[in-house]
Specification:
Oligomer: single chain
Number of strands: 10
Radius of gyration: 17 Å
Structural class: alpha/beta
Distance between the termini: 23 Å
Largest sheet: 8 strands, mixed
CATH architecture: 3-Layer(aba) Sandwich
Number of domains: 1
CATH class: Alpha Beta
Length: 245
């Protein structure tokens, strides 16, 4: 069953889709943090595919659009890693308040920048475990920094990027924040990821005290073939099932 949801955070409506697995008791739930310039479906609908697979396995999930992305309130240039962190915490609180969902069996799955948001929030949300698909570190998509300083926003990655986004990216240390979380982490890694370098992945593996890696040979950043997607989804579902209490 799919249910549209609205979660309010500081006056913004965060919109998402709750997949409820059929059950007579509380079910585990997976929160999904999407990538930069993406939405709750993720590229090639990978998060939709994952949610439907989880539902068949008796696990609910909540996909949502960060503020300024997809159908949620706000403009993209208003978004920063810190606003997305607040969104994530609000969504986690909402999920734990739903009577159908088990608050002690909450998991996080992320793609790309979603992994950075997980690093900032995991020690606060305290999921039972996380699966990070090609998690990104900090980055700056803006080419014209003078324009950014002048106007407060500038083009980057096909969107307007706000100056605060760049300022926050330059000020945060996701690996230091990640080290505050001592839960289980699986990093699903495409070996031919064209966006996130091995140095970032290795930094996360070092930061998380209980991390392991699952490599998909030849896969790119977004797992853009069905073989790669099915491998990522299969590894994710198996990992989550193995950690349900």
């Amino acid at each position: 069953m799919q249910i549209p949801v609205e979660i309010y955070r500081d006056g913004y409506a965060i919109r998402g889709t709750l997949h409820l697995a059929p059950s007579t008791k509380k079910t585990p739930v997976v929160l999904m943090f999407h990538c930069f310039t993406c939405d709750r479906n993720a590229g090639w609908f990978r998060f939709v595919m994952l949610s439907r697979r989880l539902e068949r396995e008796g696990i609910s999930s909540l996909r949502f659009d960060f503020m300024g992305s997809g159908e949620s309130d706000g403009e993209f240039y208003e978004m920063t890693p810190l606003t997305e962190a607040k969104d994530a915490e609000a969504v986690a609180s909402y999920a734990r308040s739903r009577p159908e969902l088990d608050p002690d069996n909450l998991f996080i799955v992320t793609l790309s920048m979603g992994g950075l948001i997980a690093a900032l929030t995991a020690h606060k949300i305290r999921p039972r475990a996380m699966v990070l698909w090609n998690p990104s570190g900090t980055f700056n998509p803006v080419q014209d920094m003078e324009l950014l300083k002048k106007n407060g926003k500038a083009p980057g990655s096909g969107m307007y990027i706000g100056k605060e986004f760049v300022d926050v990216m330059q000020s945060i240390d996701p690996y230091s924040e990640a080290s505050k979380y001592d839960g289980k982490v699986l990093i699903v890694r495409g070996t031919l990821d064209e966006i996130v370098g091995d140095d970032v992945i290795n930094s996360y593996l070092k930061a998380y005290s209980n991390a392991e890696i699952y490599k998909i040979e030849g896969a790119d950043h977004n797992f853009s073939t069905m073989d790669w997607a099915e491998a990522a989804i299969g590894a994710t579902v198996n990992y989550i099932k193995s950690h349900v209490a």
